[in-house]
Write a structure and sequence with these properties.
- By secondary structure, this protein is α/β, with parallel strands linked by helices.
- The chain has helices at residues 3-9, 30-33, 38-46, 54-65, 96-114, 127-136, 155-162, 178-190, 192-197, 208-229, 244-254, 271-278, 302-309, 314-327, 351-365, 371-380, 402-409, 417-422, 436-446, and strands spanning 76-79, 82-86, 118-123, 142-149, 169-175, 200-201, 234-239, 259-266, 280-282, 329-331, 344-348, 390-394, 430-433.
- The chain is globular.
- A six-stranded mixed sheet has the order 1-2-12-7-8-11, sandwiched between helices. A five-stranded parallel sheet has the order 6-3-4-5-13, with helices on both faces. The protein has a two-stranded antiparallel ribbon with strand order 9-10.
- The chain contains 19 helices and 13 strands.
- It has a domain at 76-93 and 209-417: 3-Layer(aba) Sandwich (Rossmann fold).
- Helix 4 crosses helix 5 (96-114), helix 5 crosses helix 10 and helix 15 packs across helix 16.
- The structure holds pyridoxal-5'-phosphate (PLP).
- Pyridoxal-5'-phosphate binds at residues 94-96, 127, 205, 239-245, 293-294, 372, 395-396.
């Protein structure tokens, strides 16, 4: 299966996730790539994985990242001893734009070639919905239906979605919870006849194109920081939920980028941090926190990592995933020296740590971290070394989480003109009951066959 089929398929037929058959090893090319612009670097990396002609790929990259407000796309800021990789300069001010802008353009490219239509159905508790809508708005051959729980996303997040009035964007406020939205999605996708008839697709974080787009900024930031500091190896700290972002870093390392350590940071929903400290991956109930995009207990991309961790043996992996599906837990044996992974270390930042980190960075350095980024910084700082600079991924603009900033600093500091402008715009949204039948009927009405 090529890249384009993988993008359109999402999940493999047996319910597993897709990975490239081979990961290219590029260590010998790193010197030549050091000074490339973000766009040129994205081109060099992505062309190793995709079956899209060079000229088309260049155009896709150009279109995807012209929507970012910084010439470096993902700039690196030095704050005290830390290098903050700002991933939030895209249209919705969160790191998901990096992948979803690219995915939207890839979808359009493929659908133009095949002259097919695709109807994306997504459920969101906040950030993903607006990034998906922004990546797909106004595109030919694609409609995007986004369900959010009515009245249960933040007012800013709601406005980021419902103020998009393009004809191909359908916002649905479901009278229920996020779990209801997810349940409805699962049921509709489980009805294969319905799914095929209405050409339903997804943009969730398991789509390989999303991981691919995220690999680029690991290289970009590493080159910047190695040039700036003269270091030969670097470390990254990554605020983690579904393991998509950090998995891109893991692939970058396998490609030959000299990463000394990936620091995985979770909030109170710490299934991954527990795993990397004990080898035991065990599900617990989800807790609501001030970093809501990391409130996840089953990390959808973790299976990809496990494949490599268990020796690239599909049978072993299938066994482990079955154990997890039936018993809610799985266990991996420690390495000979007792650790779980030589590359990945993990820790947790709770609410108090998060607020303290935001406050300290504001008071000492005049720099505002959003609560997700603050979790990453909190855990990452435990691993600072003189030889290996730490790059902390900043995944959202603080203005998206103004309440947390207020709670941390006591001041109303976090604003962004893009978000402020939303308050005066007209909105469009359909409110529907939280039943599969209501959503099904709505899709049938909106999708011409
Ligand atoms: C989605 C998200 C994350 C978590 O990324 P994963 O790829 O799910 O690990 C962290 N921070 C923000 C702001 C996000 O939107």
């Amino acid at each position: 299966m090529g890249f384009k089929s993988a993008v359109m398929t999402g999940l493999a037929r047996d319910g597993g996730l897709l990975l490239p058959a081979e990961i290219p090893y590029v260590a010998s090319r790193l010197p030549a790539w050091q000074r490339l612009s973000f766009h040129d670097l994205a081109f060099e990396i992505m062309r190793l994985f995709v079956d899209i002609p060079d000229n088309d790929l260049r155009a896709i990259i150009e279109r995807s990242y012209s929507s970012f407000r910084h010439p470096d796309v993902t700039p690196v800021r030095c704050v005290d001893g830390l290098h903050v990789l700002e991933l939030f300069h895209g249209p919705t001010l969160a790191f998901k734009d990096v992948a979803l802008q690219f995915l939207g353009n890839v979808f359009e490219h493929i659908l133009n070639e095949t002259n097919q239509d695709l109807n994306i159905l997504a459920a969101t508790s906040g950030d993903t919905g607006s990034a998906a809508i922004c990546g797909l708005r106004g595109r030919e051959h694609v409609r995007v239906f986004v369900m959010h729980p009515h009245g249960r996303v933040s007012p800013i997040q709601e406005r980021q979605m419902t103020t998009v009035l393009d004809d191909n964007v359908f916002n649905i406020a479901v009278d229920g919870t996020f779990d209801d939205c997810q349940r409805i999605m699962k049921t509709l996708f489980g009805d294969l006849a319905f799914k095929d008839r209405y050409a339903l697709g997804t943009v969730n974080s398991i789509n390989w194109a999303r991981v691919l787009a995220q690999i680029v900024y690991y290289f970009f930031a590493a080159f910047r920081v190695m040039r700036l500091t003269g270091a030969r190896r670097i470390q990254f700290s990554v605020p983690t939920g579904n393991f998509g972002d950090i998995f891109a870093g893991y692939i970058a390392c396998r490609m030959g980028l000299p990463i000394r350590r990936l620091v995985l940071a979770t909030n109170e929903n710490d299934i991954l941090s527990r795993f990397f400290n004990t080898g035991d991956y065990r599900q617990r109930p989800v807790q609501a926190t001030i970093s809501p995009s990391m409130d996840i207990q089953v990390a959808s991309n973790f299976e990809r990592y496990l494949y490599y961790r268990t020796g690239e043996d599909e049978a072993v992996l299938r066994d482990l995933m079955n154990q997890f599906a039936t018993g809610g837990s799985l266990t991996v044996k420690p390495l000979t020296h007792g650790g779980i992974d030589d590359l990945i270390v993990a820790g947790t930042g709770g609410t108090a740590d998060t607020l303290a980190t935001i406050r300290e960075f504001h008071e000492q350095y005049g720099y505002l971290l959003d609560p997700h980024s603050a979790v990453g910084v909190h855990v990452g700082r435990k691993y600072l070394t003189p030889e290996e600079p730490m790059i902390a991924l900043a995944t959202a603009h603080p203005a998206k989480f103004g309440q947390a900033i207020q709670d941390a600093t006591g001041q109303d500091l976090a604003h962004h003109p893009i978000l402020e402008a939303l308050m005066d715009l007209p909105t469009r949204c359909t409110v529907l009951p939280a039943t599969e039948q209501a959503i099904r009927t709505h899709l049938e009405r909106c999708i011409p066959l």
